């Protein structure tokens, strides 16, 4: 039988303890409940606190679950519900646009593709579910960074690599792109990540009005753009798809 790691078992027990019963617990309460020495319990709590899994109230000194743990839990639930709710709408978008459709969520310092609908033609295509895309240059990434404070922070801290001559790498320039994305309600990438490829994306919100992902289309520049501009009908279709998924997730403002 594989050996377990005692410190991780204790940390997990501590999180379960904080998740139930009283909202906040003191060091003595936690140590006695778990049968630990105060020094041991304090060391584990400090580590969990540094990682954002536990927070300490400055006034009382008591501990409670941290925002990072709650965010991870919500992300797990949101991703599964997001994909389930988006299946029909992304299929419709691929069919009406004639382009590939991607559904992405924030993961670490990038965009994780959680659903991919192939372009509805006979061309050979590769499923990209599980692939990572950059936050600073893709349409999906810009939308997430524009609407999700956590994604914005990740994009600001990450290295903004220049994939093509059109990639915006400066923080000032990137912030201007995000301002434009918020003002328009959608993001774009015209040969900023891959030569010859353009994409359009829009944000998806949940019932708490929190951004939980982004949906977009991507294809050859000559198809996605017309006379040097992104096609207005594709922009409208992507935004309609995002609104439809958001409504299914309970976002009343849509």
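Q: What amino acid sequence fits the structure above?
A:
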């Amino acid at each position: 039988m594989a050996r377990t790691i005692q410190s991780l078992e204790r940390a997990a027990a501590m999180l379960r303890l904080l998740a139930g019963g009283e909202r906040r617990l003191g060091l003595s309460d936690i140590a006695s409940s778990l049968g630990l020495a105060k020094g041991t319990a304090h060391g584990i709590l400090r580590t969990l606190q540094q990682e954002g899994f536990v927070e300490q109230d400055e006034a009382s000194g008591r501990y409670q679950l941290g925002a990072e743990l709650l965010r991870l839990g919500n992300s797990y639930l949101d991703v599964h519900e997001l994909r389930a709710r988006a299946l029909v709408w992304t299929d419709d978008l691929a069919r009406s646009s004639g382009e590939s459709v991607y559904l992405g969520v924030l993961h670490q310092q990038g965009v994780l593709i959680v659903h991919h609908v192939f372009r509805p033609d006979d061309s050979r295509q590769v499923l990209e579910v599980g692939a990572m895309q950059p936050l600073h240059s893709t349409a999906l990434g810009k939308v997430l960074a524009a609407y999700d404070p956590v994604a914005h922070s990740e994009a600001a801290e990450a290295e903004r690599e220049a994939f093509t001559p059109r990639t915006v790498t400066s923080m000032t320039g990137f912030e201007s792109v995000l301002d434009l994305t918020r003002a328009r309600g959608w993001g774009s990438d015209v040969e900023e990540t891959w030569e010859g490829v353009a994409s359009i994306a829009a944000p998806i919100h949940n019932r708490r009005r929190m951004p939980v992902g982004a949906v977009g289309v991507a294809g050859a520049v000559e198809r996605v753009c017309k006379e040097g501009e992104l096609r207005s009908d594709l922009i409208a279709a992507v935004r309609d798809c995002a609104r439809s998924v958001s409504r299914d997730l309970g976002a009343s403002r849509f």
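Q: And what stands out in the fold?
A: The chain has nine helices and ten strands.
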